[in-house]
Specification:
The protein is of the alpha/beta class and 396 residues long. The protein folds into 2 domains: 148 residues, 3-Layer(bba) Sandwich (FAD/NAD(P)-binding domain), CATH 3.50.50.60; 138 residues, FAD/NAD(P)-binding domain. The longest helix has 19 residues. It is globular. It binds flavin-adenine dinucleotide (FAD). Flavin-adenine dinucleotide binds next to helix 2, strand 2, strand 6 and helix 9. The site of flavin-adenine dinucleotide has 36 residues, from helix 2, strand 2, strand 6 and helix 9.
């Protein structure tokens, strides 16, 4: 046990995503002499989320958004692969199944929980029986299947569904709908395929962009249904909460989101990990358990910027306790939302928006004029995150 031998604090981070790696790097950079940081993560790779919708138009490919973890060793961060199954905050131990099915555990002085979200359709009738019919832009396999279906469909209906907030990346379902419309126009089959966007929220999310989407949906002949949830999935149809039945040829459904079950089973929160406040990410009951990223219960949208910012706040709590200099951080960001291309060209345009949670009420800024440049900016932003967090060469 390295921490016991060296007097260094053992920090275990669950999840090697934006928040987990962001927190781990910040700790090593600021108090590297006082901590041993181990990330436990499920997969041997990380794939960024934001540009996954562009896989539909062929403007993005998985190899550009995927990274391995091996370079993190050169940054002084240990990564072990395993799916965390249980956390015991009393005993200060994390239990996981490593590749090959071997059960392992790690003790900690500090635990940072950053496992992101799971897509949980268990509350929807018929979900398990028909899960293999559902595609979306959120998961790597499903987005490839979605692309294949979208490029094959000749007639029928594509139904895109956004569940009730909070879910990760508020604009992604509307982005999906507009990209579906683009591909169908490009293929010359839009006139024979209905595009239906069902949103469980009162308006498509995030709220400051609702007007922009509504106008675009109307201009492009996209049918919009709001304020109703999908309560049943069947072969070729869904049923909404008011009883209406809609037929689909392609169902692109985002399931309701939640943190993985081991959080609830450890008594750390029902749907999300409870935290003291957005700037104090310690668990209300356990000083040594912190949360970051999409899994944390924060009053903000769940996206990469907020995930990273929360990771810095979580790291700062430990840095301050160990006598280091905290990093500067606040909850505010600029983002870009794909709106497809109304002429059916496979050159996606985007709009820009900003949210500033340092003000009350939060400041919102929308640049609603679609531009190609915004799509390119989003790509540069995503690549710079990936390169900054996941690339480290020996000796650097
Ligand atoms: C399609 C899509 C579009 C998006 N668009 C945008 C956008 O435009 N702008 C934006 O800012 N954000 C966007 N996001 C959201 C952004 O990707 C997330 O908010 C961000 O990745 C959250 O970071 P995280 O570290 O909390 O979770 P993640 O990045 O998901 O990382 C979680 C990590 O934990 C691991 N893990 C999960 N369960 C376990 C377990 N039991 N044991 C061990 N490890 C585990 C996972 O394998 C993963 O490596 C989008 C996401 C998607 C999927």
């Amino acid at each position: 046990m390295p921490g016991v031998a060296t007097g260094r604090k053992r920090v275990v981070v669950v999840g090697g995503g934006i928040a987990g790696v962001g927190a781990a790097r910040t700790l090593v950079e600021r108090v590297g002499d006082s901590v041993d940081v181990t990330i436990v993560t499920r997969d041997t790779y990380y794939a960024a989320g934001p540009s996954r919708p562009l896989i539909l138009t062929g403007e993005q490919s998985v190899d550009r958004i995927m990274r391995g973890y091996e370079p993190l060793a050169h940054a002084g961060i240990k990564v072990v692969y395993g799916a965390v199954k249980r956390v015991d905050p009393g005993e200060r131990r994390v239990y996981f199944t490593s590749p090959g099915g071997v059960e392992r555990s790690l003790g900690y002085d500090y635990l940072i929980l950053a496992p992101g979200v799971v897509y949980d359709g268990s509350g929807i009738e018929g979900y398990w029986e028909h899960m293999n019919l559902i595609v979306n832009v959120y998961e790597l396999g499903r987005v490839q299947a979605f692309k294949h279906e979208l490029w094959s469909i000749r007639e029928g209906a594509v139904l895109v569904y956004a569940p009730k907030m909070p879910y990760r990346c508020a604009p992604a379902p509307s982005e999906t709908t507009l990209l579906v419309d683009t591909v169908l126009r490009h293929r010359g089959v839009r006139g024979r395929v209905r595009v239906i966007h069902v949103d469980a929220n009162e308006v498509p999310q995030p709220k400051p962009l609702a007007k922009v989407y509504k106008e675009m949906f109307e201009d492009r002949g996209i049918e919009l249904i709001t304020g109703r949830e999908i309560v049943e999935v069947g072969n070729g149809y869904v049923r909404l909460s008011d009883g209406e039945k809609l037929e689909y040829t392609i169902l692109a459904m985002l399931e309701p989101n939640r943190a993985p079950r081991f959080i609830e089973e450890a008594g750390l929160g029902e749907r999300w990990v409870e935290v003291r406040s957005p700037t104090n990410l310690r668990h209300p009951k356990y000083d040594d358990v912190l949360a970051a990223g999409d899994a944390a219960k924060l009053p903000f949208p769940k996206n990469q910027e907020i995930a990273y910012e929360s990771a810095l706040y979580a790291a700062n709590s430990i840095i301050e306790e160990l006598g280091g200099e905290p990093v500067s951080v606040q909850y505010a960001f600029v983002g870009w939302v794909y709106v497809g291309n109304p002429e059916g060209r496979l050159e996606t345009l985007s709009v820009q928006f900003g949210l500033d949670f340092t003000r009350q009420p939060p400041g919102a800024r929308v640049e609603g004029e679609p531009k190609r440049e915004y799509t390119l900016q989003k790509d540069r932003w995503e690549q710079s995150y990936l390169n900054r967090l996941y690339h480290t060469l020996p000796g650097l």
